[in-house]
Predict the structure.
Amino acid sequence: MIELLKIEQKYYQGNLPINVFSNLKLQINEPKIIGIIGPSGSGKTSLLNIIGLIENPKSGSYFFRDQDCLKMNNLRKTEFRKKNIGYIFQNNQLLEDFNVLENVALPLILNGENYKNSCEIAKDFLDIFGLAERIYFKPGLLSGGEQQRVAVARAMIKKPQLLLADEPTGSLDDETADLVFKYITEISRKNNTLSIIATHNFKFIKKLDICFKVEKGMLIEI
């Protein structure tokens, strides 16, 4: 499904180069639940952003279902993300101008579904997440766990081929973290979604199909 080859990434602090990845490789051939672990600053978010076509590496190749993603122009990348990739951000990034129902319906609307049908699909989907009583609330009125469930629902409603989750349970209590992780893994398996989850939570590792550690700019399977 995806293949990263000889990925190198670096940033600069003033004139000082900070090397993040060096000859990083990753190949996943079928839908799985993949974990990425490593300390803060090791490059987990940068890796997800490269896979999600949010940032470009300094060099290397990235193929998604045989498409050469790094050769796409910005418009093509945007269209590709809309149709194929779901993203769960660290801080959920829900839109306060919209209620819960509209937040979750938005990916469908952006992909051409009409507003009414999108909201009907979103309403049914939110019921699965136990949020049927919250659909007309603005995100700021929800608890942190409820907000994160909304973020998961928004990322997964379009049944993406690829789901990227950046510390999706990092700010949650243990019970809510377990629930959110359960939704991600169960719906990913049901929809044959390749899910890549960056996490600090080691108790989830045994529930993953494969787990990699970011170490010295490369991925090491553990």
Remarks:
- The chain has a mean pLDDT of 93.
- The domain at 2-221 is CATH 3.40.50.300 (Rossmann fold).
- The two ends are 21 Å apart (CA to CA).
